[in-house]
Amino acid sequence: QKEVEQDPGPLSVPEGAIVSLNCTYSNSAFQYFMWYRQYSRKGPELLMYTYSSGNKEDGRFTAQVDKSSKYISLFIRDSQPSDSATYLCAMSAGNTGNQFYFGTGTSLTVIP
Amino acid sequence: NAGVTQTPKFQVLKTGQSMTLQCAQDMNHEYMSWYRQDPGMGLRLIHYSVGAGITDQGEVPNGYNVSRSTTEDFPLRLLSAAPSQTSVYFCASSRYRLSSYEQYFGPGTRLTVT
Question: How far is B36 from chain A (nearest CA, A)?
């Protein structure tokens, strides 16, 4: 069983829609939860991170962590064509060495 | 700041050849790492370093060597290339090893082994 599971999509939505992206995980030691955005043929860039459970909001983006269900989500409000990219979730236990475990990524296309 | 740079951008190797993928960062980051990205597999950690002179293995280290003689550079060596090493390789760095959630990634090296 993979440490992190993520639906690869692809996901296609009209401009202005609310997008929900999700990951599940199996390791209860994970404490740091991150979302990266990766444009085609580019390196991933950090979008948001959350420590432990709860919500975090940054502009049109909201990250949620539910540790009891081992489930994290990223919501994108008022989606724009520029949001079209692959979104990767990543997790870490935060111990020495700090290995990160990534989901496979969800491909999102926002149609104008 | 250039951030994290990687060379080359593209490379084709024959089975059995060796090569070094270069990675450099100019942000004085302690923590550096190498990942490979394959379709359906996500990013997988190959090797990482928490400072000059200190390296350790990640999830998929076989067939790769690393060294870290300076804070800035973290080269990845393929000892004897195999077709299974065809992938996109990303180098990443972050400031503090225990809070390294904020990783900065390079643009990647696309490697094909024939």
Answer: 11
Q: Is A82 helix (H, G, I), strand (E, B) or coil?
A: helix
Q: How far apart are the first and last CA of chain B?
A: 36
For residue range A72-110, list pLDDT tens digits in order: 999 999 999 999 999 999 998 876 556 788 999 999 999
Q: Is B106 left (phi over 0), alpha (psi -120 to 50) or beta?
A: beta
Q: Which residue has the tokens 């809070």?
A: B99
Dihedral sign (CA B43, A102, B94, A80): positive
Q: What is the pLDDT of residues B3-43, one digit of tens each?
A: 999 999 999 999 999 999 999 999 999 989 999 999 888 89
Q: Which residues of B touch A4 (CB under 8 A)?
A: 42
The partner residue sitting opposite A103, judged by closest CB among B31, B42, B92, is B42
Rounded to 10 degrees, the C-alpha dihedral A107/B1/B7/B10 comes to: 30
Distance from CA of A78 to the nearest CA of B (A): 26
Which pLDDT tens digit goes with each residue over B87-99?
999 999 988 665 6
Q: How far apart are CA B111 and CA B114, in angstroms?
A: 10
Nearest CA in chain B to A2: B41
In chain A, residues with a C-beta closer than 8 Å to the C-beta of B58 are 99
Instruction: State whether residue A94 is helix, strand or coil.
Output: coil
* Number of alpha helices (DSSP H) and beta strands (DSSP E) in chain B: 0, 11
